[in-house]
Design goal:
The structure is a single chain. Helices cover 57% and strands 6% of the residues. The strands form three sheets. Strands 1-2 form a two-stranded antiparallel sheet. Strands 3-4 form a two-stranded antiparallel ribbon. Strands 5-6 form a two-stranded antiparallel ribbon. By secondary structure, it is mainly alpha-helical. The mean pLDDT is 89.
Length: 248
């Protein structure tokens, strides 16, 4: 018997006059703002100039969004270019679909190029370390966009924290199940826990420059490896395993 569950949201967007605010996009924007604020404060503490993080973000954020979307489209080609696919929908970012590894890779490259143009004497690796905890906070916030879109949930479950999924959102073969693992929540909490670990590590551990950012990528991927195994949305597979498991 189902004792409790997490309800699905009744809305995914808000109408404000002629504007339509998509909650998925709003979660990403709030996450980006938090990452910039936290990253700026941490960078100043290691001798960086105020405003540098914001200047870098002007290039890094669009690059990260582009990289995240490209990764998603490339690793889920049937959804857009398959027999019943819709190529134009590849542009509809607000509907969900951002691959974090693509976002990290292209965002990292964009940040590096922008930082070099600024000509700062502080190594880029220090900037990367300063940004790492804030990036995790951004990911934690951004994952709630999947809740608003009712997507990327896991296998059926009757645990008290299971996610209620409307019949119209259930994947093929799962129509008889009403509640599923809230993998968005698992990942959000994992990102928050790792962020706290990195905050602690930067204060108490004697790490070489650049190690904190490396720890960010490694620990996030460790958690994502297990969470990815719960998901039931369509995904490319290699030797029977989801592509994102291999990347993790």
């Amino acid at each position: 018997m189902q004792l409790a569950s997490i309800p699905s949201p009744s809305i995914s967007q808000i109408e404000v006059g002629p504007l339509t605010i998509h909650m998925y996009a709003l979660c990403i924007i709030v996450g980006v703002v938090v990452a910039i604020i936290v990253g700026n404060r941490r960078f100043i503490k290691v001798g960086g100039k105020p405003g540098v993080v914001g200047d870098v973000a002007i290039t890094a954020v669009p690059a990260g969004v582009l990289g995240g979307r490209l990764y998603h489209v490339i690793t889920s080609p049937d959804q857009y270019f398959g027999k019943n696919g819709d190529p134009i929908s590849a542009l509809y970012i607000w509907r969900g679909g951002m691959g974090i590894w693509g976002a990290i890779a292209l965002g990292f490259a964009g940040a590096l190029l922008a930082y070099r143009r600024l000509g700062s004497e502080i190594p880029f690796s220090r900037l990367a370390d300063a940004l790492a905890p804030g990036l995790l906070l951004a990911q934690s916030i951004g994952r709630w966009g999947n809740w608003f879109n009712i997507e990327l949930f896991g296998k059926p479950t009757t645990l008290p924290w299971a996610l209620e999924v409307p019949a119209t959102k259930r994947p093929t073969g799962y129509a008889e199940f009403a509640t599923f693992h809230p993998t968005f929540l698992y990942e959000s909490l994992w990102c928050l826990v790792v962020a706290l670990i990195l905050f602690r590590a930067s204060q108490s551990w004697k790490l070489p420059t650049g190690a904190l950012f490396t720890l960010y990528v490694a620990t996030y991927s460790f958690g994502r490896f297990w969470i990815e195994g719960l998901r039931i949305d369509e995904s490319e597979r290699i030797l029977g395993l989801r592509f994102n498991i291999w990347v993790s």
